[in-house]
Backbone:
């Protein structure tokens, strides 16, 4: 009988996020740059991120989707800096078809790129994956609100967790 080993992804600091973004900029991969920013700012799982098309977000203030895991409807405000990043990436990619996916990569490929990037920018002793983006964004929001229990409850609702103990992890 084989057992499946699950590893928990780690959150990244703001500095580590910026180092990864700069790494992918240097590597000429604007899709990964945008993925990191979008993942951190929307708190979406990769299963939702890789369903987004350009037409879902270009020139829009709100992203509306049904989460794949929970099948719950989410309306996410797209802030000014993320809107600008989306537009800049779209233009840098020579305006792809608006029905194309923003992030057409498999989760395995993205996780491999994130791990390689993490090694190259000397992020040590952390298990980096697409889920690290969601965790990093949530942790940043929680810490920005004085790590309050009240905000933990709000984050738990935003993340669609069944309990605050899952969010706390």
Residues:
């Amino acid at each position: 009988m084989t057992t499946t080993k699950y590893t928990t992804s780690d959150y990244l600091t703001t500095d580590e996020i910026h180092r990864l973004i700069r790494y992918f900029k240097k590597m000429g991969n604007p899709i990964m740059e945008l993925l990191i920013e979008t993942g951190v700012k929307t708190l979406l799982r990769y299963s939702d991120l890789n369903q987004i098309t350009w037409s879902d977000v270009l020139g829009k203030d709100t992203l509306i989707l049904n989460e794949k895991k929970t099948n719950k409807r989410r309306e996410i405000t797209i802030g000014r800096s993320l809107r600008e990043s989306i537009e800049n990436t779209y233009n840098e990619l020579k305006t792809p078809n608006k029905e194309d996916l923003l992030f057409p990569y498999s989760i395995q490929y993205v996780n491999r790129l994130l791990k390689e990037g993490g090694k190259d920018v000397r992020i040590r002793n952390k298990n980096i994956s697409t889920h690290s983006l969601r965790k990093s964004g949530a942790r940043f929001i929680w810490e920005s609100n004085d790590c309050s229990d009240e905000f933990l409850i709000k984050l738990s609702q935003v993340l669609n967790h069944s309990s605050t103990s899952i969010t706390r992890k």
Remarks:
- The chain has a mean pLDDT of 89.
- The longest strand covers residues 62-66.
- The beta strands are 62-66, 73-77.
- The longest helix spans residues 130-144.
